Amino acid sequence: MDEASRDVARRVREKARTLYFGKEVPHRSCGIALAECFGLPTRPYQSLRKGGVTGEGTCGAVVAGQLVLGELLGDPDPTGPLTPALRSAMESYLAKVRARIRRGGSATLVCNDLTGQFPVFQSEERLGFCTDIVATVAEAVAEALLEQGLPVAVAPIAR
Questions:
Q1: ∠ CA(98), CA(126), CA(158), 5° rounding?
Q2: Whole-angstrom Cα distance, residue 68 to residue 58?
Q3: Residue 159's pLDDT band (boundaries 50, 70, 90)?
Q4: What is the rounded distance in angstroms from the CA atom of residue 6 to the CA atom of residue 131?
Q5: Range 72-108 burial, b when 16+ CB lie within 10 A, else e
Q6: In the chain, how long is the greatest CA-to-CA distance?
Q7: Which element (helix H / strand E) includes 50?
Q8: Whole-structure pTM over 0.90, yes or no?
Q9: Are 25 and 35 spatial neighbours (Cβ–Cβ below 8 Å)?
């Protein structure tokens, strides 16, 4: 990836961090932060909050990354085949997620396992931990899209 692409991915990472962390702008959940980073409607991404609402599912940020790729690279025909671009981007994305996400003491990417390491869910430590995951996922999605030749625009955050 060239320097311009790396810069775009870093800007997406920072936007996701700002949206999720909630200090400069109101907090967005992990899935909503990802959707907003890529200019997608946020409503369905609400269901990804806290690992599918119950905490029992895979980290909402990780799932949101997969859905963003599907929305932007998938075949719009419901009977259409898996696009080569989506397959390639998903493979790249998942490899980046496996290599980069810091899980702390969690053996899985299940939300309750990741956040269960923190005695108080509403703690600054847990917020920082999850913010890092959201930012890492956003950057990995941006890189996977850029690798497929899809331009990624980083719109300013509505304040």
A1: 85
A2: 15
A3: confident
A4: 20
A5: bbbeeeeeeeeeebbeebbebbbebbeeebeeeebee
A6: 46
A7: helix 49-52
A8: yes
A9: no
**Token pair for residue 87?**
């397959």
Contact between 6 and 139 (Cβ < 8 Å): no
Stretch 134-155: mean pLDDT: 97
- Checking if the pLDDT of 94 tops 80, the result is yes
User: Which conformational region is residue 140 in: left (phi greater than 0), alpha (psi within -120 to 50 degrees), or beta?
Assistant: alpha
pLDDT in tens, 16-38: 999 999 999 999 999 999 999 99
Residue 20 corresponds to which tokens in the numbers above?
A: 């999720």
Q: What is the DSSP string of 29-98?
A: -HHHHHHHHTT---GGGGGGHHHHTTS-SB-HHHHHHHHHHHHHHS-SSTTPPPPHHHHHHHHHHHHHHH
Contact 83, 89 (CB under 8 A): no
Strand-pair partners of 110: 58
Angle ∠(111,84,108) on CA atoms, nearest 5? 15
